[in-house]
Amino acid sequence: MHFTSEPRLDGGVIEREFTLGEIPGILWTPVSASASAPVPLILLGHPPLGLRKMHPRLAGRARQAAADGFAAATIELPGSGERPRWAALDQARADLRRAMEAGEPVGDDIIDALVLPLVDKAVPEWQAALDALLPLPEIGGPVGYSGGVISIGVRLALVEPRIVAAALFAGSFVPRAILEEARQVTIPLHVLLQWDDEGNNRQAALDLFDAFGSEEKSLHANMGGHTGVPQFAGDAAAQFFTRHLT
Amino acid sequence: MHFTSEPRLDGGVIEREFTLGEIPGILWTPVSASASAPVPLILLGHPPLGLRKMHPRLAGRARQAAADGFAAATIELPGSGERPRWAALDQARADLRRAMEAGEPVGDDIIDALVLPLVDKAVPEWQAALDALLPLPEIGGPVGYSGGVISIGVRLALVEPRIVAAALFAGSFVPRAILEEARQVTIPLHVLLQWDDEGNNRQAALDLFDAFGSEEKSLHANMGGHTGVPQFAGDAAAQFFTRHLT
């Protein structure tokens, strides 16, 4: 891992860009962390729209994490942002767009082609990021995962023992295979659902929530579209991490 | 309204029993309230099991309310506790029990007979309690409604303008007529659903949540049975009232 930017101070948080091989990423640490004990880490998941575009929202979530005493980090998803295009992913997105514009139901084959390769490729990258981040002196553990793509969060919750709690954003399509993996997840979960999310299937999200094997799982459904998560819902997710990471 | 007990100090709260005509009730005020400005009021809804039986849970919720700076009050439901038996309600309960023990689906007629007369009779009583409680010097406003019977909460949210926010517990049957009333409710709502509530119909609860006309409504679903609401879910409901009553 190489830091590629000077540290930038933004409120109570220090932001540093890094690369992990070819993968760009961003690390945010609370100002107080450098002078005190190592802090827990929250991995900030996000949709595959590119880190540059997502930066304002990610930085806002990182400031919240820092206020609660946590570091936060994210990496670019395969095929997104400044990473090389990924023809299969572009094709799957085009197929999805075509189906939605035609008003057709989005079939399982389209969802599988769109999401499963992304999960298969991204999850080992997030794990590699953990390998690189956790040895930093200002970062300890435990680790939480926050956000979408929810299928990436499900797979990470299942296969990565360093992640002890996850706040998942039910805002993307979920392949049948991921629904099956969800049954084996046992870590505490906090699932956010935007009830009127125009890009989401509410029943699929409820089915996924029902499937999780975790003894502690909470579903928080709020009004508004995909990007309309109310401030108090963010506060509740923050309290979830405070309960489980400290 | 007549106070029928000496004030009892329990932690940070003063508990006083009262009667309103033939209806027994309990008022809890924060110790600090008597010496300071009037405080908002939370009406504590509860299932028709009798105030004596419900007292430990109600007193716990009142202590939470007092810690947040709110008074809390409750009244006995018609046909419950020490109030006169109500033959029609007893009959409806017997019909429900018979249907459930026979493994039959609980039909709309049984639900209507069980819930609608209770709502029709209880709601004016809660309003009369508000008439009696709000003039007390230690109680100001605004007013919130918290708990079940959820159909009573829906009707109160619709017809009682002094109630500005409601945290409703989705743990009882909901008549079709109440579902229609829910569409006209506009105050902020916080709906608690126990995902595996053995005495509840999850889909009916989701349909009710969907029906509410409120611009701000949140569904918090958690694991566990009817009485297994986790502490952090109570905390979230408390924060909802702090947002809307202060």
What does this structure look like?
The structure is a homodimer of 246-residue chains. Chain A has 246 residues and is an alpha/beta fold. Chain A has a single domain, classed as Alpha/Beta hydrolase fold, catalytic domain (Rossmann fold), CATH 3.40.50.1820. Chain A contains seven helices and ten strands. In chain A, strands 1, 2, 3, 4, 5, 6, 7, 8, 9 and 10 form a ten-stranded mixed beta sheet that branches. In chain A, helix 2 packs across helix 3 and helix 3 (108-133) crosses helix 4 (150-159). Chain A is globular. The two termini of chain A are 27 Å apart. Chains A and B meet through helix 6, strand 10 and helix 7 of A and helix 6, strand 10 and helix 7 of B.
Tell me the strand percentage band of chain A.
15-25%
| Stretches with pLDDT under 50, minimum 5 residues of chain A | none
Structural class determined from secondary elements of chain A: alpha/beta
> Which oligomerization state do the chains in this entry correspond to?
homodimer
Determine the number of helices of chain A (DSSP H or I, runs of at least 4 residues): 7
Q: What is the CATH architecture assignment of chain A?
A: 3-Layer(aba) Sandwich
State the CATH class of chain A: Alpha Beta
Distance between the termini of chain A: 27 Å
The backbone outline of chain A, from C-alpha atoms, is globular
What portion of residues of chain A is helical?
40-55%
Instruction: Report the C-alpha radius of gyration of chain A, rounded.
Output: 17 Å
CATH level-4 homologous superfamily of chain A: Alpha/Beta hydrolase fold, catalytic domain
Order of helices and strands of chain A: EEEEEHEHHEHEHEHEH
Q: How confident is the prediction overall: mean pLDDT of chain A?
A: 93
What number of domains of chain A? 1
- How many E-type strands of chain A? 10
Please outline the major beta sheet of chain A: 10 strands, mixed
CATH topology of chain A: Rossmann fold
Which pair of chains has the greatest number of interface residues, and how are they split between the two chains?
A-B, 22 and 22 residues
